[in-house]
Design brief:
The complex is a heterodimer. By secondary structure, chain A is an all-alpha fold. Chain A has a domain of 68 residues. Helices cover 60% and strands 0% of the residues of chain A. In chain B, 39% of the residues lie in helices and 21% in strands. Chain B is of the alpha+beta class. Chain B has a 5-stranded mixed β-sheet, covered by helices on one side. A 5-stranded mixed β-sheet of chain B has the order 4-10-9-6-7. Chain B is elongated and about 100 Å long. Classes of the chains: A mainly alpha, B alpha+beta. Chains A and B meet through helix 3 of A and helix 3 of B.
Chain lengths: 140, 319
């Protein structure tokens, strides 16, 4: 396709009809949970780094704990919501050896939902592992 | 081939004993890490045995479709849930150990400055700093807080038998708390490659009873006792040694090299590498770079005969 051409691209989707993010037909649900995990890790790191930079090298790290825990709970709640979507809209099931061999829209949806659900579990565990050091260490 | 592997095993295991043994548990911090190590080692061996056993069992057994559900459940619990719980528990345990052994307080504070390739050691006492080098004495059952810096490049301070290690970084201070629980002469070394003589940058960490330590520190704080007109000290000054080395109580106040005030009271010469003997001292002065390459101290090959003997006798009297 050349730029500046009046010709419409072949697969042009009119505005408003594009698939919504995290909706059926979209694979965004796959990256959503790990992205929340990454964001939680980054935010927790920032909270601790900024707190310790302002408060000094061996300052107490007890006060910002609730921020790290709250971030963890919010992230876990968001991921739980994603998990519900993966089950309800995509028909994902929490079975490790789910075999999805059917070549159909429904089969593809179930596959995406299944993978999304497993990624949700992995991300929640990882977020838990990020919160634990914040609870154990009392000083910067 | 197989035989040659068995031949090198004793050489590899030689690192597991003696004064550099990190499993000697001569320090409270090393003890905590060692406990974790044994649990990890035994746990890993058991899990490895189970996994290999399951693989052999699966390989030998006929496929039985009726056990499919059971097998999948086994893999879910054994392959996903169990490792997650174990790793989580080890994470908490490891973090608690890390929290407990990191401290910014101690019963005594020792500043150690890493230089190429030796250690400047400063004991902080209420009466003021006590400067020494290349030998660290510690009282048993007391926590020593090391405040670590480096003068030139990154070094790393490590006494394997007591705990650690900790990097020494130019321009910033790191701290390390060590609590020796066993008296003895433990080996310390630089654990971060820092240039040519890195492997020769060592020190003795001598753990003593509190009373013996107190006497030692008191003696160490005193200036050197030098007889008036000591010919050895005159040679020391004529050769310019005092430009780099300090002998407290004299005009020799050079800040570059190790403090020599109580040089002969140390067990080792050249940062923990040679016995403190007159022969080694004479060679150190005349053939320095053969004993320790690349160091800043220049050799004095022209210093021979009676002048060398007098200088060595003087240095060996600094106890």
């Amino acid at each position: 396709m050349r730029h500046g051409s009046d010709e419409q691209p072949r697969h042009f989707t009119p505005p408003g009809d594009a698939p919504r993010v995290i909706d059926q037909g979209s694979v965004w649900i796959l990256v959503a949970a790990p992205s929340i995990w990454a964001a939680h890790f980054l935010l927790s790191y920032w909270v601790a780094a900024i707190w310790c930079a302002k408060a000094g090298p061996m300052a107490s790290l007890v006060e910002p704990r609730w921020i790290i825990v709250a971030l963890g709970l919010i992230s876990a709640a968001l991921i739980a919501w994603l998990g519900v979507i993966a089950v309800r809209r995509y028909g994902g099931v929490f079975v490790i050896f789910e075999e999805i061999t059917e070549s159909s829209e429904r089969g593809r949806d179930r596959f995406v939902g299944h993978v999304a659900l497993l990624l949700c579990v992995l991300s929640v565990v990882a977020i838990g592992f990020t919160v634990i050091p914040g609870l154990v260490f009392a000083t910067c | 081939m197989r035989r040659s592997i068995f031949l090198i095993i004793p050489a590899l295991l030689a690192g597991c004993e003696g004064r550099h043994n990190w499993l000697a548990s001569a320090g409270a911090e090393a003890q905590r890490v060692e406990d974790l190590f044994w649990v990890l080692l035994v746990g890993a061996a058991v899990i490895w045995g189970i996994v290999i056993g399951a693989a052999v069992y699966a390989h030998r057994r006929q496929v039985d479709p009726s056990l499919e559900t059971q097998a999948r459940r086994f893999i879910l619990w054994g392959g996903a849930v169990f490792p997650t719980v174990v790793v989580g528990a080890l994470l908490v345990w490891g973090l608690v150990i890390l929290r407990d052994i990191t401290s910014d307080e101690g019963d005594l504070t020792v500043r150690v400055d890493g230089e190429r390739w030796w250690w400047r050691v400063i004991y902080e006492t209420p009466e003021g700093d006590v400067v020494t080098a290349n030998e660290i004495r510690l009282p048993v059952d007391r926590t020593a807080l090391f405040r670590l810096t480096a003068d030139d490049v990154i070094h790393s301070f490590w006494v394997p038998a007591l705990g650690g290690k900790m990097d020494m970084i130019p321009g910033r201070e790191t701290t390390l708390a060590l609590t020796p629980i066993e008296t003895g002469n433990w080996g310390g070394l630089c654990a971060e490659y820092c240039g040519g003589a890195h492997a020769l940058m060592r020190f003795d960490a001598i753990v003593m009873e509190q009373s013996a330590f107190d006497s030692w520190l008191e003696a160490e704080a005193q200036p050197a006792e030098i007889a008036a007109g000591d010919p050895g000290f005159e040679i020391f000054q004529e050769e310019g040694c005092g430009a780099c080395h300090t002998i407290r109580g004299t005009e020799a106040q050079g800040p570059v090299g190790p403090d020599l005030t109580h040089l002969a009271s140390r067990d080792k010469l050249g940062a923990g590498i040679y016995d403190m003997t007159p022969e080694n001292m004479a060679r150190w002065i005349t053939d320095t770079h053969a004993m320790k390459p690349d160091i800043d101290m220049p050799p004095y090959p022209d210093l021979q005969g009676e002048r060398l003997d007098r200088l060595v006798a003087f240095l060996m009297s600094l106890d």
